[in-house]
Amino acid sequence: MTTSPLSVFSTDLARTAKIQDDKLHSAWRSPSNIALIKYWGKKEGQHPANASLSMTLSQAFTETSVTALRSQGPALLININGDNAHPFLPKLQVFFQWLIREIPVFNGFSYCVETKNSFPHSTGIASSASGMSAFTLCMLDIASQIANVDLSREETLHLASFASRMGSGSACRSLFGGFSVWGESDIVAGSSDQYAITINDLVHPGLDSLHDAILVVSSRPKSVASTLGHSLMNDHPFAGARFMQARTHLEQILTALKAGDLERLGNISETEALTLHSLIMISRGGGLLFEPGSITIMRKIKEARDFGLPVFYTLDAGPNVHLLYPDAASDKVEAFIRSELLQFCEDGQVIFDHRGEGPVAITERND
Ligand code: PMV
Fold it and tell me: SS3 sequence, 3-36?
């Protein structure tokens, strides 16, 4: 049996009982990410059916704080965006149970979790990615304090990537700034099904300031939860073809990233988004996640491109449209968004985001 990397927190429980603090605290801000090569379908052990590639964002993030109180524990009290009965709670509870099985030092404490998003939850902006990665970072930080383990930032992010994928697969890519790959692939050295890796050294510096404007067409919770969506790939009639396509797209997008070729990257991203939605539409139950506004926006982007504007789209499993464009064209694209596209967004909501640097610890507090 292979040892889990989380065994780094295994410690003599008698020693743990001696730690002075009855109250421990950790807080992290972790960003969302946008997949350019989509993860859709999984294998046993929460391993992806194909390797995915994403860009970590900056303005779309979750801030989470966890306070651990010594008690008979472990118990979990969660407050999401001020709501104690949020639909994301059960997913977090299941992940918490996995964490306490993997990291025994969590026993003997209860955990109060407060979490807040900078964007609407469950709308195709990967809220589970930012939420799960922020929660995992807080919990591993607390595990380090209990077990008295000193980890570097790099080690912490690697372990958080390993653990957070059990809460939400896409979360494991949010731990790193810039571009990440999750899923073992012979094309990407060091890639793994168990955690994501950064691939920034394979990316042309011209893409360092790639923009992603997220057009919120609807903030209603999405109708096909990703857990169900992944499972529908198990007997999907096009599963085999999709996994082959994902491999080809990964190879092509890596070439585009290396060359700084936004047009190629954008074309692949659009095909990936349309493939994801097509797979969902013809899955059992036939989910239709576009809103009329999503389709109009996609059409208008294509038209604008025909007039020379370098702008491309992608979508996750929801109606909101992510616009990808280079820094050099940001004034023109943002003027186009304001004049042509904002009218299709719910209450004119748009998040002007861009490639981000990854998670940050908020403040050390122990009061
Ligand atoms: O992490 P999950 O289980 O919520 O799945 C996310 C799937 C997509 O967002 C649709 C694609 C991706 O790779 O992020």
Answer: CCHHHHHCCCHHHHHCCCCCEEEEEEEEEEEEEE
Q: Is the link from the previous residue into 74 a cis peptide, with omega within 30 of 0?
A: yes
Rounded Cα gap, residues 287 and 294, in angstroms: 15
pLDDT of 365 reads 47
Nearest atom, ligand 1, residue 126 CA: 9
CA 276 to ligand 1: nearest atom = 10
Using the mean position of ligand 1's atoms as its centre, give its distance from the Cα of residue 122 in Å: 11
Low-confidence ranges of the chain (pLDDT < 50): 365-367
Sequence-separated (6 or more) residues with CB below 8 Å from residue 154: none
38 Cβ closer than 6 Å to some ligand 1 atom: yes
Phi, psi angles (nearest 5°) of residue 328: -60, -25
Position 76 scores a pLDDT of 81
Q: Is the CB of 126 under 6 A from ligand 1?
A: yes
pLDDT at 367: 42
pLDDT tens-digit map of 83-124: 777 777 888 999 999 999 999 999 989 999 999 988 765 555
Does the beta carbon of 316 sit less than 6 angstroms from any atom of ligand 1? yes
Ligand 1 atom closest to 42 (CA): 3
